[in-house]
Amino acid sequence: LHQILKDATLYFSRSTPNLSMVIPAMDHIDSVFTNGIIKRDTLDPAKRTLNRYYSLTDTSKVYRIAMVLHPRHKLSYFKSAGWEEEWVETA
Q1: Looking at residue 20, what DSSP letter applies?
Q2: End-to-end Cα spacing for the chain
Q3: Which residues touch 38 (CB under 8 Å, ≥6 apart)?
Q4: Is the pTM here over 0.70, yes or no?
Q5: Going by C-beta distance under 8 Å and a sequence separation of 6 or more, which residues neighbour residue 37?
Q6: Cα–Cα distance between 59 and 48 in angstroms, integer?
Q7: How far is 65 from 49, CA to CA, in rounded Å?
């Protein structure tokens, strides 16, 4: 748990992060939380916090616009990440 959060913090602190990397980073962290072998009582607060911040990306169209305009991502990221078709259309 500590390492994945440390890696994300260092990534966004050191390099030149951009908005198109926020959602993939959050998805990666969520995947580690979901598939990792971490005690549930340790994970619950972290998962709630991640979900709260993830839901905040819905309040701003900027994240989705950055993803769609990014040459590597476009709509394919949302589709490959398993987003519901309605969400992909909204993006």
Answers
A1: G
A2: 30
A3: 1
A4: yes
A5: none
A6: 17
A7: 24
Residues 19 and 65: their CA atoms lie apart, in Å, by: 9
The amino acid that residue 28 corresponds to is H
Amino acid identity of residue 63, one-letter, is: Y
Neighbours of 87 (CB within 10 A): 13
Label residue 16 left, alpha or beta by phi (over 0 means left) and psi (-120 to 50 means alpha).
beta
**Three-state secondary structure call for residue 74:** coil
Q: Which class for 13: exposed (0-12), middle (13-18), buried (19 or more C-beta within 10 A)?
A: exposed
- Tell me the per-residue pLDDT of 10-69, one tens digit each, with 9 for 90 and over: 888 876 768 888 888 888 888 888 887 666 667 788 888 888 988 898 888 888 888 888
